[in-house]
Amino acid sequence: MSPATYRAGAFVQAAQQLGLDAVVGLDLPETLAEYWHVPLGLEFANIRTSVQRIVEYAREKPFAAILSVDDSATELAAYANMALGLANNSPQASEAARDKLLMRQLMSAGGAPCPIFRNFWLYEDPAWIASQVTYPCVLKPRRLSGSRGVIRADNAAEFTAAFGRLKRLLVAEGASEHETSILVEDFIPGFEVALEGLLTDGHLKVLTLFDKPDPLDGPFFEETIYITPSRLPAQTQQEIADCVATAAASLGLRTGPVHAELRVNERGPWMLEIAGRSIGGLCSTILEFGSGMCLEELILRHAIGEEVATLEREEHAAGVMMIPIPGAGILKGVQGVEAAKAVPLITGVEITAQLNNQLVPLPEGASYLGFIFARGDTPTEVEAAIRQAHQCLHFEIRRGIPVLNQGSAK
């Protein structure tokens, strides 16, 4: 996992509950790992050296399974499992689930509905590219996650501005403009859903389907509310599951958790992307299976070969809001947390942004202000509770002068 992941505690705690000896491999240089007493310091960008370290460690303490918690670790986990003869997705499939160009190419060849796409290099003239594409379109970096760098453009002027903004972001991340390309895709109208699933020998078990009730039409695509169970008709839900299964097969994903994002319109579901890991942030905390089993425990049981196909999500409706950052600045204060927690059906409010730290919204940013969790009898009442709780929150963000920003739901 990466050092900044939200999900470390959930996986480590689930391992402890199962009596498993979990070894955490962090994306840290070896010297820093030793300084911080991290058992296994790994550099995800240097796969060969990191695999060698894992293999050497396994000689003393053999592993039963190696899991990636974050996108950045999926390829390393695949190579390490392959080196140790453990079950996992192939390195090629793991790479395709991270690289949006490879993903699109394989999905198109495999029959998974996805938008028309083209690939362009950062060094190319944006004005020329703007004359070659269809509008509205969406510009995407190939490897960033969480909607970072994803920008809609409705005309050539917006495209040129978006291209420059994305280029600055990628160069700041260390990309070379002569070695880095971006995707430009046709914008697909419709609403979004997210599917959480588990693959066993290529067979997809749907764990849950999330509705995203807030529109995601751009220019940026910051996700907010996830609600489950889905309120879509059973036939539509089955079409979504079939679409995800086709996409997973086209990439060669065969085992472990998958998190898929789709858009749905009158022509059916369209694949946006599929990742070979579970849902991000703290969103998994609203999911329970069987007799109170959390998602991370389910994933660990599956990884060590236990039968989990019969486990179903508990019947209550649940939801989470990833609290969006309204604007750049320094977070100086948060009010209304207790009032938000007091809203009926709200089960928790976690403010993860740190006071006096810089806030960076999308498309450059990679985090949220925090999370709101709710549970109830129906998806509709859960959604209403989350929106009411969000209205209780006030964030003081200093943008040159103190600004009081009131939470507002769409």
TrEMBL record:
Q: Matching InterPro entries, A to Z? A: ATP-dep_AA_Ligase, ATP-grasp, LAL_C2
* Annotated Pfam families: ATP-grasp_4 (PF13535), LAL_C2 (PF18603)
Q: What name goes with this protein? A: Phosphoribosylglycinamide synthetase
- Protein origin, superkingdom: Bacteria
- Domain ATP-grasp, first and last residues per copy: 104-304
Q: Which UniProt keywords apply?
A: ATP-binding, Ligase, Nucleotide-binding
Give the Gene Ontology MF terms in alphabetical order. Answer: ATP binding; ligase activity; metal ion binding
